[in-house]
Design goal:
31% of the residues lie in helices and 31% in strands. The chain is α+β, with helices and mostly antiparallel strands. A hairpin with a 7-residue loop joins β6 and β7.
Length: 198
């Protein structure tokens, strides 16, 4: 198995549907085992100061029912916050419908099973984008978020937090990984569609 295959196999990918505040939504789900205790993972995710070190510093009324904004203009409401196991946020950008992102953490004897659910009222998620175009597709983009989280937990703090929107140089190793993940998400989407065609 190649190094790329090992990285690709770290994440379990699936699609689903769920009801969110803005309506009946399509949902992507990814699971990954993170080799750190649940308390450390939760703190990296829910402590604003830590989040500011590896993603972006949120501003707002950072409590359940409160609102937040990120420097890239992403904003929403903190819908549920039941540490260290569950965090649910509404998520929107200018010109887009309101989505929800949910983080489920489970303690598994010293490591953390991390499940990320992203649900949006739309017909489908983008599964490809041109390198250098502010790449963010439903699946591969959120996997990059998990990569940066793992690097942070392992002690790598970026000089400049990448934020939620990020650029990938065409032809570089990150672009290769992104495209390989995108292909996995394409296959996952096809399987889901075949199972749910009336």
């Amino acid at each position: 198995m190649s190094d790329l295959d090992i990285i690709l196999e770290k994440t379990v990918r699936s699609y689903g549907r769920r009801q969110i505040q803005s309506g009946h939504a399509l949902m992507i789900v990814m699971e990954r085992d993170i080799p750190h205790p649940i308390g450390e993972v939760w703190s990296a995710l829910a402590d604003p100061e830590q989040l500011g070190q590896w993603v972006a510093l949120p501003e707002g009324d950072l409590r359940r029912g409160g609102t937040y904004t990120l420097p890239d203009g992403s904003h929403g409401t903190i819908l549920r916050c039941d540490g260290p196991r569950l965090l649910t946020l509404s998520w929107a950008r200018e010109g887009s419908s309101v989505a929800e992102v949910e983080f489920h953490l489970t303690d598994e004897d010293g490591y953390t099973r991390f499940e990320l659910r992203y649900a949006s009222v739309r017909k489908g998620f983008a599964v490809s984008a041109a390198p250098g175009a502010g790449l963010w597709t439903g699946g591969a983009g959120w996997e990059y978020f998990l990569d940066v989280l793992e690097e942070y937990l392992a002690g790598t703090v970026p000089d400049v937090p990448p934020g939620i929107r990020f650029e990938i140089e065409s032809g570089g190793p990150l672009a290769q990984l992104f495209e390989a993940r995108t292909e996995r998400w394409r296959r996952t989407a096809l399987d889901f569609d075949q199972e749910h065609i009336p």
